[in-house]
Amino acid sequence: MNLTDQSTVARKASALPYMPQLDALRAFAVGAVLIHHFADFKHLPYVMGQIPWGFLGVRLFFVLSGFLITGILIESRDRADGSNGSRWFGIRQFYTRRFLRIFPLYYFVIGVLLLLNVQPAREIFLWLLTYTFNIQVSIQGWFPENVSHFWTLSVEEQFYIFWPWLVLFAPRRSLIPVICALICLGPLYRLYAVAHELSEATTYCFTLSALDTLGMGALLALVSHGNTAKQTIERFLFRVVLPTGVVATIALTAMSYSKTSWKAYVVLLDTAVALVSCWLISAASRGFKGPVGVLLESRPLVYCGKITYGIYVYHLFMPLLIAPIFGKLGWVYAQRGMVTLLVSSAATFAVASLSWYLMEKPINNLKRHFSYRPKPALRSPSVDYGMALDSLVSVAEAGGSPRSM
Question: To 10 degrees, what angle do helices 211-224 and 172-195 make?
């Protein structure tokens, strides 16, 4: 099967059309994380050395995740409502497909860490297994070595626990207020953290801190799937959202150097970056034109985006593999530097590619059996309780009662 055939199968099974430029954004986001962990900022040009690469990459991931997940759920809800189908079917398919994509690789890596006794996997394995590692980091107030990046995966999995139920079953008129409240919780929690002088790990790793970035993506998805004209959304994003986000990001960055106003930087920077990310994701979902579009749809960049999950999961373990090899060759493996960045990134790419073809892709292909589009089937005369509950939800949204149907 060639790439075109694979894309066709993916589109048929997925609730959203395939948007290749979003894969390219994933590649840039994970590239920023690699720079953050492996580059020596002292030897980068001044402006590049001042950029919070890891921070920006992770926030872009969060906004993109909120956008895609919410878009999938809204499409599932619309399909169920339009064909008198069941929203419970959408819930089942969503969790099954998420499980196939995320759990096998993650638990495989956890198993290897436990088997090889990589610190501190055995001491915190319950936190890792239950996707609550970010809570453990928030409690202790510092990042453990080797597995520190897993906090973001915990945040996303916790988001998946409650968000599908809200999008699929809450009254439609309540979705925007709920999302706006979600967005407000992020800076409010960080304000609390700053006021109580909590650690950086506690401030940023606790789930509430990421709700504005996830919520911004969710709001973008909801608006994009609404009745508002696409051109109106594009103009608003370009003329209002993007300039506001850029100006706020620059201003807050300047405030970070002030002893009196650095708190505003901690509280609001995530939200400002999320605004810029919303414009970028919206534009990429429609498709940039010209040279930018050609770059974002280039096969190498799109491929990197496809294996981003593996790149992110594996990258912090590369020093454990490379340092002994360097030692046997009589070379020094520096903790950071240009050589470290290049060698570690190349090794990560190689391992992630092997992981994709040998494990992730075969498992991911099983998702074709769990399409968001239900297969037509003869109905049994027995009661469909899922559809009955969906009918009650629809009646509640309309403000009526079962008898008025």
Answer: 160
**Residue 361 φ/ψ, nearest 5 degrees:** -65, -45
Q: What angle do CA 356, 91, 133 make, to 5 degrees?
A: 55
Say whether pLDDT at 362 is over 80: yes
Residues of the chain above pLDDT 70, percent: 87
Domain ranges of the chain: 8-368
Q: Distance between CA 179 and CA 278 in Å, rounded?
A: 14
Burial class (CB in 10 A: 0-12, 13-18, 19+), 118: middle
CB of 252 closer than 8 Å to CB of 264: yes
User: What confidence tens digit (pLDDT) does each residue in 16-27 have?
Assistant: 778 999 999 999
174-199 per-position pLDDT tens digit: 999 999 999 999 999 999 999 999 99
Sequence-separated (6 or more) residues with CB below 8 Å from residue 163: 69, 70, 73, 214, 218
Does 130 have pLDDT greater than 90? yes
Instruction: Check if the beta carbon of residue 110 is closer than 8 Å to that of residue 125.
Output: yes
Determine the pLDDT at residue 46. 60
Select the more confidently predicted residue: 147 or 9.
Answer: 147
